[in-house]
Amino acid sequence: MEVSAIEEAARECFVNKNTVQTSLFCTALQKRNIDTRKKMARIVESTDYLALTNYNKQVVLTKQIFSEATKPPALPSHKVASRTLGVKAAPPPIERPAIVPPTNFTKAVAPVSVNCDTQAITDLLGDIVIDIPDLDNVGLTDIFIDVGSNTSVKTNALCIQGEKFIAHSDLSIILEKLPGGGPTVKQSNRVIFGQTLHRLATVMYDGIVTGLTIRIGRSVSGLLPLFEGLIEGKNILLCGAPNVGKTTTLREICRHLSRGKCLCLIDTSGEVCGDTGHKHHIVGTSRVFRPVDPDKQYATLLDCVRNHSPDIIAIDELNTKQEVDVCQTIALRSIQMVASVHGNIEDLVFNPMLNKALGGSTEALVSDRNAVDGRKVVMQRTTRPIFDVVINIKRTLRGLEYTFMENVADNVSRIMQGKSIQISTRCILGEELLETKEEVVYDVSL
């Protein structure tokens, strides 16, 4: 590994800044013919002035090794031959397109409206709710109640412990208020309580309930400007880490797409619509199906195709390869698909169970001419992707950000090869829609 080349890449990236995205540093290294696949952590560790942070998504300059005003040195020209007698000139570096600086624009929109039935949580928890200071905070996503511990909540991805100590009797009082005494493992260990969108799951230890997790459910209106011009007539995949707003986004998309269309929504867990019969304001005119057996979600998908004349089929949470196979069958019948799945874009590309949604993957032997960073065994797509647009949702300090990847077939191939792709990111702040278009490299080697 060429130490000077790594420092040259650092000089290029860290001008007037101390933190950069790992993907940008990866690109700077690749310009210098350094193979970064599965080596980024080792490359950073080989220096005493760099460190990885934010789950390896960012590189930090820990020690100033050069002046910020220093101009990055030019790459050696492959046109200049070596003047040392008997020494062969180095091969030309791999030519890579420069990363285009991001472009931004804003647009005035109506503010987002959030509705959350906090009274149902108060009624369920009783005195325990005193330990939860701000139920109206949109950053509050989960409440954790465990026997032998204090209550805790997750707010803006940070767990905060309260003062209320939980006993078995506290759990018993809560469970008695739920239909059927609470969720069962057979039904995916989830129950929607009250006429709400809130979800409750139990923590089991040796067959005994020792804890509860309450996921706060909210309906949101005003998100449609985020998807303007990107979802009509296209197969859409919503992805992201658990609890970032995929189900909330699916509700809004279903409400919009169901206008003048027959949209069949598979709501297996009841999280999209809840147990309420008043679903019209949540998912529009969508027809809602709830499988009796959650493990046979794919059978309900097929039933919709065969018997209910759908124009669009939407499903919350693809979980198995069998469900992905059925989605492919549906897409080939000219029915629009909308689905959500756990995992970010770069995770799904190499997920053997679910990546068929993005075209699958296989190893292939290529010629020297098509080798990637000197590797002749490369990853390639095996088929056409099911989805036309992938929307990656991420929770940030300024709210939810939506990253859109179009031209999925071409872009997935480029991700597999470690090449840059074009994406756009949108978010709503107050009464403004912010959009950034940029070129990024997803470092799938870490």
Automatic annotation (TrEMBL):
Molecular-function GO term, any one: ATP binding
Sequence ranges assigned to domain AAA+ ATPase in this UniProt record: 232-397
InterPro entries in the cross-refs: AAA+_ATPase, ATPase_AAA_core, P-loop_NTPase
SMART domains: AAA
Protein name per the record: AAA+ ATPase domain-containing protein
Source organism per UniProt: Mortierella alpina
Organism placement in taxonomy: Eukaryota, Fungi, Fungi incertae sedis, Mucoromycota, Mortierellomycotina
